[in-house]
Structures are given as C-alpha cells and as structure tokens.
Amino acid sequence: MRILSGVKPTGRPHVGNYLGAIRQHIALQEKNNECIYMVADYHALTTLRDADLMREYRRGIALDYLALGLDPEKAIFFFQSDIPMHAELAWILSTITPHGLLERAHAWKDTKAKGNREMNAGLFTYPILMAADILLYNADSVPVGKDQKQHVEIARDIAEKFNNTFGDTFTLPEPDIPEDVATIIGTDGQKMSKSYNNTIGIFEDEATIKKQVMSITTASIELAEPMPIENDIILGLYEQFSSSAELDELKANYKAGGFGYGNAKKALLNKIIEHFAEARERRTKLAESDNIKEIMHEGAKKAQKIAITTMSDVYVKTGLS
C-alpha cells in the first residue's frame, strides 16, 4: 500500500501532532508499506510570510521527524517545494475543480467565519494543492486528523472528475484516521492546536513543558474529594503514554480523594518527559551533524521519480504532450 502524508512547517510539533499523526506515520513505515512523507512548505505560505522563519521551521520539522523515528531508508521524506510538479499538477486540477466544491470545505468556511485572517486565494484553493500532493503519487491511503478528512474526500472527488474527463489516471485515495486519537484535547479543553495556544511541546525545554502541563484546565473541587475521571484532560493524555496498569493506578487515586490535580499533572509531566527523552537526545545530535540537506535531497530524488511518471501520464491525457 502506498501511503502519503504531509506536515506544514508553521512551528514546532506538539503532543497533539505526535499522537494524531507522527506516531502513526512512523509505525506505518514498519509494516511493509511504501510511505511518502513531505514537509508541506508550499501550504505554509498561506500564513507564513517570514523567510527566515520558514527556513527555521522547515529544517526543524525535518529534524523533529527524524528524531522521533522516521527512517529515510524505509520512507521517502522530502520538502514539498523540491518537487515543483506539486504546484503544476495543482493548476491542472484547478481547471476541472468545481468552485462550489471548494466553497463547501469546512476549513475555508471556519476560517472565513472567524474573520481574523487574510482570506487569500491560497487558503481557498488549499484542497486542490492537497489533492495534487496525494494524486501526484497515486497514494492509496492518507493518514490525517479528523479535521482533514474532508480534504481527502475532496481529493477523491477531483480524481474522479479527472478520470471521467481524461481517462483513468489517478488512484482514488482513502483517509486513514485512527479513532482512538482522532482528536487530541489541549490544555484548555479544546482541540490541541497552536492556533489556540493550548499545546504541550515535545522538544521545548523541560521548564516550558512543565508550565504547559501545569496549566491544564481541571474541575473545581476540594482536595479531599474524589476527582471525576470522565472527560478528564490529564487522564486522556496520560493514557497515551502509560500502560493499562499505570492508568488504572492513576484512576484509583482519582477515585480515592486526597490526591489532587497537582499530583496528577506531575505524573503526566513525568510520562511525557520520559517518553520523549531519547528523541530529544537524537534531535540534538542530528542538529549538530548538519546532514539534513543531504537526507532531504535524497528523499526528493526518490519522490521525483514517481512524480515524473505521473505527470508524463497527465501530459498525454490532457494533450499537453
């Protein structure tokens, strides 16, 4: 099975990114799949307008994925902008994409409703570029968060329209959403997102991570009272990093009373620090070695071979060749 996914370089990844996507990406490379992962820097241009920050975030995301376990020998890993055919295919697909299909995109409607961002054409046509990303490699499966499911469905609709118009060309992709981590809750009870400033970091210093964990919203109860376990943010995150026995023990402490949210947060903090300790060490060594350019260049060469094959077919089907 050919799998494709991407991550926008708009900042450092957080625990929500790891649980919702990165962990799954790394696991898939071990299951005899053909995995293609990209740093989606073209997509980041819809909001990121600082060239120095773009360079920093691109390199940072590459370091983060490699430190967390992505193996460039088992997966194709590259910068999206190193393959200009993403943008070329996006234009071709835009000529057959109904305007109404893009207007129905939840991400576009939600951003428009909030009214706190520039509504540029890139945001509106974002699903077309995402479709090009997927279809350029004829991906069978696309691991995404629940909020991106519709974009994969739009990619599928566009692929069907192209196939019906020009002849069989593209594989129809399927979204892959692990239900147990479809939505990761942030420190304030909303979906964990940099936009909400409610994230818990992975590679930040320990003092910063501690501050984030200790800021988790909790119920207002007396210390001696039992703590409710339903819809508890701390327990929900602790479950992702602990064994079932450890989770049961923490739940028992909740029910017994006299434990307190401060201790629960400390338990979660320790689990997060412990879980990412090796990755943090690897990232430091990778950053010092400075061989990221070579790794990403090799990944781009592998990706380009697939992209050229697809585009050659597209040229013939559309009469451009």
Characterization of this structure:
The chain is mainly alpha-helical and 321 residues long. The protein folds into 2 domains: 2-184 and 290-318, Rossmann fold (3-Layer(aba) Sandwich); 204-283, Tyrosyl-Transfer RNA Synthetase (Orthogonal Bundle). The chain is 56% helix and 7% strand. It is built from 14 helices and 5 strands. The protein has helices at 15-28, 41-44, 51-68, 85-94, 99-103, 106-114, 121-124, 126-135, 149-166, 206-214, 233-241, 244-256, 261-289, 292-318, and strands spanning 2-7, 34-39, 75-79, 141-143, 174-176. Strands 1-2-3 form a 3-stranded parallel beta sheet. It has a two-stranded parallel ribbon with strand order 4-5. Helix 3 (51-68) crosses helix 13 (261-289), helix 4 (85-94) packs across helix 8 (126-135) and helix 8 (126-135) packs across helix 9 (149-166). The longest helix has 29 residues, at 261-289. The radius of gyration is 21 Å and the shape is globular. The mean pLDDT is 93.
